[in-house]
Amino acid sequence: LSSSHLQIATFALGTVGWILCTVSMGLVDWRVWHVDNTTVISSGIAWVGIWKVCFISYLHVSPGYKEQFCHKFKAFDSFVPHEIYAAQGLLLIAMILGLVALTATVFALRSIYMGIVDKTITHFFLVGGFFFIFSGVCVLIPVSWNFYSVAHNESIAFPPSYHMPSSPVSQQVGAAIPIGIIAVILLLLSGTFSLSYIFPVISNTITQ
């Protein structure tokens, strides 16, 4: 039972990592753009996510009021950079893999605490460990790629209907990227802990 305490930590870290992966995927502020033309983008700041781009505008509302405008990316939009398309696909895969890993871990822990002594427990932890690690790698790739794009102030050729410049004056990392980095660390840790599970050796020796 003592060896299962590390696996409880595996489940806890994996759960938090999976939640943070999901949160990161849903956030719009992956890249924060600072623009100099505030005619439409009133605050001078736009948030570029992996599903849409948003900004605050006073243009179409009464003075003193603000409204957030968002343009969703479509599957056939050719202007969307590769790192954003990669993030869409890989984070969806990471979410599914993380869910499989959590399910396998739950089955293994259930067997341990019900007193079921069976070597299939090890198989469940192995499956969970590999899927946690694969999930972490699937988050790491888009997070690193988008971080690289921000660091090099890379542009996006938005169509005129988006009212977005192709290049910002400057850009910075949004909240989604550090959240994604934490998710990567937690998922890789849980995978490592899960793979470290050793099936307890039960001695049949009877003392005289």
Automatic annotation (TrEMBL):
* InterPro entries assigned to the protein according to its UniProt record, in alphabetical order: Claudin, PMP22/EMP/MP20/Claudin
Membrane topology per the entry is: Multi-pass membrane protein
Q: Where in the cell is it found?
A: Cell junction, Tight junction; Cell membrane
Transmembrane spans? 6-28, 40-59, 84-109, 121-145, 175-199
Transmembrane helix as a keyword of this entry, yes or no, is yes
Concerning its family, UniProt says:
Belongs to the claudin family.
Q: What is the designated name of this protein?
A: CLD34 protein
Lineage from the top down? Answer: Eukaryota, Metazoa, Chordata, Craniata, Vertebrata
Gene for this chain: Cldn34
